[in-house]
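Reviewers of the previous submission asked for a worked example of the structure-prediction workflow described in the proposal, so we include one complete record here. The input consisted solely of the amino acid sequence. No template or homolog information was supplied to the procedure at any stage.
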Amino acid sequence: MTNSEVLKVEKLVKKYGEQYALKGIGFTLRKGEFVSILGPNGAGKTTFIKIVSGTTRPTSGKVWLFSKNPEEYPEMKRKVGVLSHDTFFYRNLTGLENLEFYAKMLGISRDNALRWARIFGMERSLGKRFTEYSRGMKVRLGLARVFMAEPEILLLDEPFSGLDPGGVEKTVEIINQQRDRSFILITHRIDIAARLSDRVLVMQGGKFIHEFHKPEISMEKLQEVFK
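From that input alone, the workflow returned the following structure tokens.
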């Protein structure tokens, strides 16, 4: 890895029984880079995120975070923030109680946790139990949890799911304000990928089959791939 590379994977394979979710892929993410991964359901996108975040082990292949093996240097994983389909919140706690729990676990001040809740428009909903939240509210609380830890790498799996148009634009605005960090975005929103990305990868069948770089990235060009 070079000094500018914050993440690198080599020959990543993941099998479930006889089925391959990932087929020997390679990938590099640089400091301050925004990469979107597009593809149909079942392409391997979420599996890739799970392996990079350390929540799933690969069948074979290597993952490097900041030039180190995260299995040998687990502190590297604290530099990675993950928003996944599993929110990792406690269902019977309120939004505030959930944020306070993670803030204490991560050594983050309660004030900072509340600040991020306000940024994502959750201040009026923190007294509700998590089970009462809509999908959009769960996503916004998850984004507050991820951003409040101030990770250097953010892995965002469908962060716009359930958000109304105003929530989508607000989230895009917040992401743009954090562009000194490195991002991997999984989304079905081709329009947002075109707006935000320095690089777009299209995944299918456990492999990256197309790659686009600025300035060639456009919504029209990406739509051509999925026709």
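Residues 5-225 form a domain with the Rossmann fold fold (CATH 3.40.50.300). We consider this example representative of the routine output the project will generate in years two and three.
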